[in-house]
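Bench log. Compound arrived from synthesis this morning; before running ITC I wanted a structural hypothesis for how adenosine monophosphate sits in the protein. Inputs:
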Amino acid sequence: MTSELTTSSTTPANTFAELGLISPLLARLTELEYQQPTPIQAQAIPSVLAGRDLIGGANTGSGKTATFALPLLQQLSKQPGVVKSSASKGTHSSKGNYVAGLILVPTRELAKQVADSIKSYAVHFNGAIKTVAVFGGVSVNTQMLALRGGTDILVATPGRLLDLISSNAIKLDRVQTLVLDEADRMLSLGFTEELAALLALLPKKKQTLLFSATFPEQVQTLTQELLNNPVEIQLQSADSSTLVQRVFTVNKGEKTALLEHLIKQHKWRQTLVFVNARNHCEHLAEKLAKRDITAEVFHGDKGQGERTRVLEGFKAGEIDVLIATDIAARGLDIEKLPVVINFNLPRSPSDYMHRIGRSGRAGEVGLAISLIDYEDYHHFKVIEKKNKIRLEREQVEGFEVDEEITAELLEAMKPVAAPEGSGKKKRKKKKSVNADIWAGYTKPE
Ligand code: AMP
């Protein structure tokens, strides 16, 4: 984060009503059991409702989607024809191929997630506000159909949006509010040119809200060019480190290949990989060695001399990959690291925080990545819930999850109800079914 960002002087409100939100939204927030605004919501929503531009320094998990979605819905609901028409047919305000609120996001997962959140916040507008998500990697035709007659809110990844504009499925000249979500990721994923092309198509007069976890030079340039006297809200202090948490879903049996891919692609140095057992450390190190990655292990069975040697090598940057168990890692006396990877999830949610806290050197962006296969999905939700975080599930190109097989496997993991009248319901994991489905499918590690 740069020191150019200052904290807003707004006095944070304790309730959503105090923020000035209208009753259809307040009713929904009560249903969703949002008891009070998160810090960014409390600080930003009044300014956004007042039509100000905004720079928000916040991570996923801070409640930033509602920060822009709630005021956007409120503003659109007050325009003639939006809420009124809901009582009759649930038609929406935009006419033709126009969009009123445009939200640009870096990934398709985020596009879906943000659109789902907006639709959920808007349920008491009874269909009056139309929200559509468009993103690459799927057929464009369904998205064109969805955009017929325009949309009030469009959540889009930049590349697909440009395609839709060039085929006249949508126009940007009536955009009133632009949201750039995860601006840093958008730029780091190579969307700079697409963004420039899109921004050129937008009207000059509009409200712009920009959210970013970090503020590298490219993002600063963008904010200077795009925002008009913005309110600046920074949730991290200027010199603290920033930790980005990511979760990659992967097919069972493909974690090692994905780990290899990530390490080689990003040329990571000083990567700390967590596994759950001592023998897993050795096992994974051997598998990586076969893939030309030299890794050292750090666990409770190692003698003190060996531990010291490994640690010194890792600290000095001579060892790129260190595979460790939680118990050994607790005693690790090392500076914070650029990358920490959960190859296996920790059993305890508090160990998750402990592990990821190993990353994020002061003033630098730290990265904590969890690799999860279907067997981890449920446990990862528990970790999120306990730690009050919610992370977007991402997939790495070339390692996409087979959705069909995964759905079958998840179904097979569900507890099986005992026959009626036989007393207690039994929890049963159909292990053999899982094994059958994967047989012949998984790539050998
Ligand atoms: P986000 O940072 O927008 O991805 O939000 C993270 C998670 O927090 C989502 O699951 C939201 O539904 C939830 N959330 C957002 N705001 C609140 C709130 N004020 N109270 C409780 N949960 C919230």
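What the model suggests: The first helix runs from residue 23 to 31. Residues 34, 37-38, 41, 60-66, 390 surround adenosine monophosphate (CB under 6 Å).
ITC booked for Thursday regardless.
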